[in-house]
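Subject: design request, 555 residues
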């Protein structure tokens, strides 16, 4: 039987088995490091390496493998390295992760192995062999890696301070972020690592390796995440996304130390204590119920305060708008009055000018007539005497025609016949006509007023509808100097009419007192009784008992 040589993968000892007295059956235990070796596999690897015929280096395994080490460690230049789209290949030498290759087909040459060339003298012959380990790393995102705490997490409820115990579990997505760090921190000299369960030939799985780290990080940071985010324990299912993100941020640095990253972490379940058996949890539920009621009352009060503030602002804005409108109205009224005053002033000046012109014309006319009379040799007295004589002559003529005459005019003219001359009759007639004119003057005009029915009435009552004559409007004097102002605002400066002090009646009989003391007896003005509203709906009550239901004024 032929002998077989192979190299121990642990200590590198070359062992030869077989022959007449040896056996090639597996397994074989190395006498140096006690490593159990598959003789046939180890011998086949050594034979392939010595041939130098390894031309294709690749891994076609399934997605359950996380890291896989190629079984051949001696390669010749010119070999083809095939890395799939979801993989990354790393050359490992003497405990160092060196050259890294991404997806694609790569021809192994001295040019694309710079780091490996830096630590060892590579042969120049393309058919020569060089020694190195090649690891294939799975770069896919491993979905739904389950995790959970092996026991309950103890923490104090942030709202009540009551100690509680809860259980937490969930899933996460893992991916490789740094292949070199991963190989140095986790893999070492192992042939590979699986994602979950330990596969044949792998000594550990990634899930089992990181389960203690996840449980410890979750137990450490779960209570802090609930407190920092102010999460109500009874509403914790509504805040799972926020808790998940907080835990991922706390756990991620620990995974990054091993070259891994956590794209997503999900808290899928948080088990709370049973209120039927846990008295503390029942107490927490009751305290939370009271707290929620208080919060609801506070929220309602805040809403009412906000509404009141809004209404106040609205009323203030309305009052400001009304004040602006009133000021604009007063300004417009003042401008109107100033315009009317200016127009009246101009009209009065025009009439004055016309009157002065008429007077001047009449004066000139009189002067002209006087000058004409003077030029003709008579004056106004001569004209009046001639007119009287003419009237006297007409009277004589009428008397002669009508006989003795029986009328008043006849008697007057008869009396005038005895007068010797017109110079004597004229003054007498003037006196008589003057008395007649005095008796014929109109009576003074009565005081009239305009009634609301449209009638121009006199006296105290309207003779059309019987309405009473309105009292004359009270006038007041403004501080700007304007006097006799009618209305609530001064038509000159726009100032508001001052409010008149309220008058009161004194117990001594003095009525209409103005001021805080009676000007007759000196008694002090009594204070107005405080009014109150009854719960029955009656408002504005001044006494101690409601005049509707008889209820006593509250203290």
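Subject: RE: design request

Done. Sequence follows.
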């Amino acid at each position: 039987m032929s002998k077989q040589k192979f190299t121990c993968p642990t200590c590198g000892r070359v062992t030869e088995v077989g022959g007449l007295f040896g056996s090639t059956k597996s397994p074989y235990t190395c006498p140096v490091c006690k490593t159990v070796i598959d003789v046939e596999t180890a011998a086949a690897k050594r034979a392939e390496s010595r041939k130098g015929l390894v031309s294709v280096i690749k891994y076609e395994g399934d997605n359950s493998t996380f890291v896989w080490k190629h079984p051949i460690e001696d390669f010749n230049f010119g070999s083809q390295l095939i890395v799939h789209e979801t993989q990354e290949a790393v050359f490992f030498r003497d405990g160092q992760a060196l050259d890294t290759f991404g997806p694609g087909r790569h021809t192994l040459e001295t040019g694309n192995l710079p780091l490996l060339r830096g630590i060892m003298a590579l042969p120049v012959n393309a058919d020569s062999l060089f020694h190195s380990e090649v690891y294939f790393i799975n770069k896919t995102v491993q979905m739904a890696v389950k995790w959970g705490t092996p026991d309950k997490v103890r923490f104090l409820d942030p709202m009540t301070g009551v100690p509680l115990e809860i259980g937490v579990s969930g899933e996460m997505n893992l991916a490789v972020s740094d292949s070199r760090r991963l190989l140095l921190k986790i893999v070492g000299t192992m042939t590979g690592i699986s994602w979950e369960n330990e596969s044949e030939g792998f000594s550990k799985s990634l899930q089992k390796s990181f389960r203690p780290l996840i449980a410890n990080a979750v137990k450490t940071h779960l209570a802090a995440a609930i407190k920092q985010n102010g999460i109500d324990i009874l509403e914790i299912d509504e805040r799972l996304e926020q808790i998940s993100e907080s835990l991922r941020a706390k756990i991620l640095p620990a995974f990054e130390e091993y070259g891994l990253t956590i794209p997503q972490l999900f808290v899928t379940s948080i088990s709370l204590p049973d209120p039927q058996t846990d008295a503390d949890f029942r107490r927490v539920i009751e305290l939370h119920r009271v707290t929620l009621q208080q919060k609801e009352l506070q929220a309602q009060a805040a809403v009412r305060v906000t509404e009141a503030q809004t209404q106040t602002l609205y009323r203030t804005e309305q009052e400001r708008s009304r004040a602006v409108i009133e000021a604009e109205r007063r300004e417009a009224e003042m401008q109107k009055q100033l315009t009317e005053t200016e127009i009246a002033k101009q009209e009065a000046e025009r009439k004055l000018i016309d009157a002065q012109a008429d007077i001047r014309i009449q004066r000139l006319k009189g002067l002209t007539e006087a000058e004409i009379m003077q030029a003709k040799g008579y004056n106004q007295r001569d004209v009046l005497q001639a007119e009287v004589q003419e009237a006297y002559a007409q009277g004589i003529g009428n008397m002669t025609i009508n006989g003795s005459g029986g009328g008043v005019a006849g008697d007057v003219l008869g009396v005038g016949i005895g007068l010797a001359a017109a110079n004597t009759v004229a003054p007498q007639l003037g006196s008589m006509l003057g008395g007649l004119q005095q008796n014929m003057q109109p009576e003074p005009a009565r005081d009239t007023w305009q009634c609301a029915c449209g009638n121009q009435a006199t006296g105290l009552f309207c003779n059309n509808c019987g309405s009473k004559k309105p009292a004359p409007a009270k006038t007041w004097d403004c501080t700007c100097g304007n006097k006799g102002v009618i209305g609530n605002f001064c038509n000159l400066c726009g100032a508001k009419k001052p409010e008149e002090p309220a008058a009161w009646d004194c117990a001594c009989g003095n009525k209409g007192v103005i001021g805080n003391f009676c000007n007759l007896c000196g008694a002090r003005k009594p204070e107005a009784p405080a009014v109150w509203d009854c719960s029955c709906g009656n408002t504005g009550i001044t006494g101690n008992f409601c005049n509707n239901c008889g209820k006593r004024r509250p203290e």
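The mean pLDDT is 76.
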